[in-house]
User: Which sequence fits this backbone?
C-alpha cells in the first residue's frame, strides 16, 4: 500500500514513519513517498527515516520528490501536513495580530484566519489533483486550520477527505487516566469544531464517569486541563474544554502573555527547526539523535505561555508523546482492512449537529470502517457552546468565500466577525498588515 505524505520535509514526519514501522500486519503501508517543495528539507527528513528503519526488516520503502503529480499518482492514502508560508509565515501571523492587540495563534483568531486564507487555495489545488490522479485515494488532513482546510477539500473530494487532530485524543486520554480507566475502553462524548470542542461525558462499561471527576476538586485539578482552566471554571461549565479554548476563556491574559514573551511560538519554532536543518547539512550528523533532541524541546514548550498564565507548571511526561501519528495509523488501518473502530475526527456534519448544515465540517466521534468515517449522533451543545461554534463556523465560511473569490472585502469580514477580533477597523488593519508580509495573499483584491 502506498502512502504519500505532503509536507514530507516537515519536522514531524518521523512520527508518522515511526508508527508505520510498528505495523507488521497484512495490508500495511509498504511504500512511503515524501513530497515537499524544499529538496534540502526532504533530504534531512529522509536521513532521519533511514536511521529509524535501520535493522528493521521489511521497513516501508521511502522515496522523495518535489513533483506533486508524481507523488500523488497511484497513492492509496494521502497524508497532508503542509505549511504554506513556512514557519516564517506563522511568525508573521503572530506578530501582525499582536501588534493590534489580538491573538495571533496559528489556528485561533486572527492568526488562524490569515493562515487559512493563504492555505485554502493550495489545499483546493491539491484536492483537485487527487481527484484527477488518485481518485480512489483517501486524504487524511492534518494541515491547519484542520477543520477549515478539511471543509475546503471536501468540496472536491466529498467524504474521502478526513481531518485529524491529536488534541481530543490527548484530552480523552488524560481524563480516562485520572479516572483510573483504560482509554481504549472509554467512550468519549466530545463534539465541536477543530480546536473548539468539549468533553461532556466519558463512559466506561456504560457508566458516565465524568460527573465523578467534576465533583472531585483534587482529582479535577490534577491534570493538564484542570490546571489550565481552573477547577471552578470546569465545574461551572460542567464539561472539560479542549485546551485551545483557553484562548477564548482567558483571552486577555493569553494576549498579554504572548506580547510579553521573548519570542512568539512561531518565531521559537522557526529558529529551533532552522538549527536542526542546518545541523543536517553535515554529513556526519546523527540525524535521529538530533531530531529526538529537537522534538523533546518542542513538546516541552507547547502552550507554555498559557500554562504560565494559569500557573499550570510544566507539562506531565505522559503528555509529551504527541499522538496524531497514532490517529492517522488507526484511521488508515480501519479503512484499508475494515478494522472497525471509533475515532474523534473532522468530517462533514450531515445531521449530527442540527444548528449547522450538512456540509459543515465538525469534530466528533466517528465509527470508521472500509467505507470511511461516519459521525455518531450526539446530544445538542449547550447554548454557550452553540453560539461559539456557530460564530466560528460563520467565520470559516467567510474565509472560504474570500479564498474562492479573491475578495479583500470578504477577508475583512472574516476577521471582523471573529469573536476574538473586537473592531472592524482592527480587521481592516489586519488585512493590510497580513497582505503586506504574505506573498500568498496577493490574490486578495
Assistant:
Amino acid at each position: 500500500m502506498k502512502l504519500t505524505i505532503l509536507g514530507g520535509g516537515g519536522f514531524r514526519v518521523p512520527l508518522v514513519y515511526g508508527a508505520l514501522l510498528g505495523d507488521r500486519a497484512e495490508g500495511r503501508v509498504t511504500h512511503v513517498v515524501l513530497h515537499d517543495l524544499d529538496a534540502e528539507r526532504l533530504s534531512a527528513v529522509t536521513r532521519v527515516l533511514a536511521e529509524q528503519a535501520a535493522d528493521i526488516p521489511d521497513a516501508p520503502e521511502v522515496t522523495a520528490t518535489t513533483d506533486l503529480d508524481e507523488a500523488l499518482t497511484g497513492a492509496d492514502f494521502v497524508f497532508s501536513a503542509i505549511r504554506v508560508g513556512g514557519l516564517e509565515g506563522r511568525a508573521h501571523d503572530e506578530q501582525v495580530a499582536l501588534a493590534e492587540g489580538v491573538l495571533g495563534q496559528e489556528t485561533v483568531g486572527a492568526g488562524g484566519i490569515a493562515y487559512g486564507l493563504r492555505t485554502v487555495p493550495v489545499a483546493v489545488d491539491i484536492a483537485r489533483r487527487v481527484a484527477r490522479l488518485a481518485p480512489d485515494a483517501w486524504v487524511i488532513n492534518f494541515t491547519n486550520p484542520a477543520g477549515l482546510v478539511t471543509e475546503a477539500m471536501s468540496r472536491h473530494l466529498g467524504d474521502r477527505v478526513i481531518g485529524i487532530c491529536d488534541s481530543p485524543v490527548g484530552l480523552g486520554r488524560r481524563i480516562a487516566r485520572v479516572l483510573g480507566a483504560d482509554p481504549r475502553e472509554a467512550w468519549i462524548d466530545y463534539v465541536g469544531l477543530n480546536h473548539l470542542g468539549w468533553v461532556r461525558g466519558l463512559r466506561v462499561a456504560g457508566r458516565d464517569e465524568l460527573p465523578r471527576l467534576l465533583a472531585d476538586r483534587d482529582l479535577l485539578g490534577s491534570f493538564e486541563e484542570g490546571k489550565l482552566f481552573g477547577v471552578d471554571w470546569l465545574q461551572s461549565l460542567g464539561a472539560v474544554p479542549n485546551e485551545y479554548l483557553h484562548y477564548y476563556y482567558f483571552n486577555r491574559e493569553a494576549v498579554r502573555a504572548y506580547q510579553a514573551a521573548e519570542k512568539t511560538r512561531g518565531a521559537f519554532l522557526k529558529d529551533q527547526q532552522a538549527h536542526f536543518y542546518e545541523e543536517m547539512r553535515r554529513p556526519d550528523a546523527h540525524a535521529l539523535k538530533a531530531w529526538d533532541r529537537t522534538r523533546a524541546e518542542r513538546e516541552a514548550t507547547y502552550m507554555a505561555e498559557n500554562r504560565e498564565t494559569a500557573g499550570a507548571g510544566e507539562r506531565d511526561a505522559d503528555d509529551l508523546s504527541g499522538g496524531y501519528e497514532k490517529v492517522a495509523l488507526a484511521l488508515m488501518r480501519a479503512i484499508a482492512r475494515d478494522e472497525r473502530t471509533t475515532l474523534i475526527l473532522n468530517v462533514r456534519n450531515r445531521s449530527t449537529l442540527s444548528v449547522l448544515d450538512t456540509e459543515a465540517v465538525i469534530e466528533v466521534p466517528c465509527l470508521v470502517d472500509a467505507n470511511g468515517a461516519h459521525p455518531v449522533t450526539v446530544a445538542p451543545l449547550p447554548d454557550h457552546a452553540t453560539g461559539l461554534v456557530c460564530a466560528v463556523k460563520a467565520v470559516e465560511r467567510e474565509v472560504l468565500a474570500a479564498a474562492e473569490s479573491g475578495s479583500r472585502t470578504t477577508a475583512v469580514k472574516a476577521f471582523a466577525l471573529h469573536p476574538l477580533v473586537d473592531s472592524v477597523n482592527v480587521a481592516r488593519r489586519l488585512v493590510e498588515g497580513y497582505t503586506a508580509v504574505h506573498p500568498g495573499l496577493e490574490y486578495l483584491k
The first helix runs from residue 13 to 21. DSSP finds 20 helices and 13 strands in the chain. The two ends are 43 Å apart (CA to CA).
